[in-house]
Amino acid sequence: MAWEIITVCLDPVDRREIDVALAAAMRPYDRDAPQDPDDEWGGRWDRLRIGWSARIPVVGGYEDDLRLVRGDSSEDTGPGYCDGGPRALLDLGAVRTAAAEAAGREWDEWQQMTAAFPPARPLVHFVESSAEPHDYFGREAWQAYHSQPLLAAVANRYGFTTAPFQRIPNWGDDPVVSFGLARVDFMALRAREALATDGLLTLSGEWLDPDLMGSSAPGLAGQLDNLRLRRDYLHFTDLYLMELPPDAVLLHVHIHC
């Protein structure tokens, strides 16, 4: 069980009715409520609250708009941020821009590091040539990947561990692949991934969670497939939220699952 932040989308609703609308949207996924017998997961949450650490920027000039939603955690972030509200009042573009600018700085740092080492091969190269393709942890492939001088230097600088699920903070999946993109493309990629949280509940009531989009491939190859599925989720979320009707309500909801 763990706490996560999900993004919940609601049809236009009066601010005073937000709690009621949120409860109705979340009820089908309540662990304590009757579930669809075909739902093997048995619900997605057992506790929830709006917000956690308010991080949605507000469009300039609307900081005091009464339609904005702020949980208790918003007090420490100031009026320029909120936990949700009508899509038109939320500066999602600012989130994407900040992510792109940070990505540009990361790309520059990566290039400086790579200049001192021979080119590294991506993780998938070692997975495909591994003699133990069904090893869930992919120890052989993972160790071969990290034995490359560039990746060893990254591990020394950033504390990159040998655990299969660990990735360089903020750098996404295999950095050899990601940073192989042109700088402008890498910045665009990170911008498209900036809006997603741990899950998305759409206006139609569909719950999307990348952790439930597992691959059937065995071993570390399956984990790589999961990373690709996660990227698909991030990109879909970006497109979905950017195209929400301006009066639709978007909320960050803290759930225990």
Explained architecture:
The protein has 257 residues and is of the alpha+beta class. Helix content is 37%, strand content 12%. The chain is built from eight helices and eight strands; from the N terminus they run βαββββααααααββαβ. The strands form two sheets. Strands 1, 2, 5, 6, 7 and 8 form a six-stranded mixed β-sheet that branches. It has a two-stranded antiparallel sheet with strand order 3-4. Helix 2 (92-114) crosses helix 7 (183-193).
Question: What are the main properties of this structure?
Answer:
37% helix; globular; 257 residues; two-stranded antiparallel ribbon; 8 helices; six-stranded mixed beta sheet; alpha+beta
Summarize the structure.
Helix content is 37%, strand content 12%.
Task: Indicate the topology.
Layout: E1 3-10, H1 18-26, E2 47-50, E3 56-57, E4 81-82, E5 84-86, H2 92-114, H3 123-128, H4 139-146, H5 149-158, H6 175-178, H7 183-193, E6 199-201, E7 207-208, H8 219-242, E8 249-256
Parallel strand pairs: 1-6
Antiparallel strand pairs: 1-8, 2-8, 3-4, 5-8, 6-7
